[in-house]
Amino acid sequence: MDPVRLAALEVLKAVRVDGAYTNLVLPSVLRQFDLHGRDAAFATELVSGTIRRQGTYDAILASCVDRPLRKVEAKVLDALRLGCHQLLSMRVPPHAAISTSVDLVRAKGTSGAGGFTNAVLRRVAQQDLDTWIAQVAPDRRTAPTRYASIAFSHPEWVVDELSAAVGPDQLDALLAADNEPPRVTLVARPGRATRDELPGEPTPFSPYGTVLPGGDPGEVPAVAAGRAGVQDEGSQLVAIALAAAAVEGRDEHWLDLCAGPGGKAALLAALAAERGARIVANERQEHRAGLVRRALRGADGVAGVVTADGTAPPYRHGVFDRVLVDAPCTGLGALRRRPEARWRRRSDDLLGLVLLQRQLVAAAIDLVRPGGVVLYATCSPVLSETRGVVASVLEGHADVRLEDATPLLPDVPDCAGPVPGTLQLWPHRHGTDAMFMALLRRTS
Length: 444
Description:
This protein is 47% helix and 13% strand. It has 19 helices and twelve strands. The protein has helices at 3-18, 22-32, 37-52, 54-64, 74-89, 94-107, 114-124, 129-136, 144-152, 156-166, 168-178, 221-224, 233-244, 263-273, 286-296, 341-344, 349-367, 387-396, 427-430; strands at 185-188, 201-202, 209-211, 228-230, 253-256, 278-283, 302-307, 320-326, 368-378, 400-403, 423-424, 436-442. The strands form two sheets. Strands 5, 6, 7, 8, 9, 10, 11 and 12 form an eight-stranded mixed sheet that branches. Strands 2-3-1-4 form a four-stranded antiparallel sheet.
């Protein structure tokens, strides 16, 4: 058995059966199978790419199988999807992709499915990906959402939400960017590390980031020591924007209200320490608070890590000068890095998340003093989570003013948000997660 493909199959099983997250379970599986370097990179792309393109591959497989896919044994279907990705999106010779997939199903105790797997994947190998999409997807003129759903492997409701946010002219570019493997981006935490210590090319917008050319980021000395970390450039820009906002009067007490897993809190702590300020990192879930503590270990500028509900936080009103609300959201802005999210989220999730976002921003407004600022951020471009939340907050708080956030990131082009003065980053424009930002000032 090929250990690389066997490891990939184990990750798919963990995602399917245990609800695991690919980025969390993959490192332990790579260690279990002792995969490094090119083998680890191959396994990573095999797993993440298969999950990203699952919708497309399932449509293709459905046309090659003589029964509904729901009647195909789950572990056999996992192997078929892995085979599809190798045949249609990776430079793997057909004989290798097919024979190793057959070996997988036989190794998992389904020897009778070996011939079935061989026959199906031989049919898949007869055409390239574009030809298959033209065959299995409907005419985009009469069914544009369904076409995009199959061609770009996004659920139909996600296609509709992203189309409303980015516009139909840029929808294809956004959906295609969601299917590209993300770059591994590092961040040097000011006062603890410099960007010159980190390998890779500098990020275009963050003054603290580099793009790792390859290898394990944990082997970078500054990362291993906690003086630097792995952080998408979009997340870095959220912390930079909050720190760049002007406040009236003192600037000593900062709060990250939804701090887990701690990347933004760590960068904010470094920026706060440079000014003599300190940050409180608040996180509702204890296990995520533990991740925040680990990210902040050894950092200056930290007043404490508190496990508490952000909608009812245990702090005095009006005590903070700056508050970050990086709210729980659908995560549809990070589909490159969280490939399984597109298949787990449901449109029914939106209402509950929007209500939670409104509660968190309302709590933050109570906690910030007059003259201080709240930065509301989501890793989602969905309009109900961006424009809708901002409109609701402004309508319900006469003592809050929406500030123009565009001067906070002057070097980032084409990032106007859905509300004038807000910011929206995009994978296809900026190479970042689709982070949204709105700057709110407490006036009285």
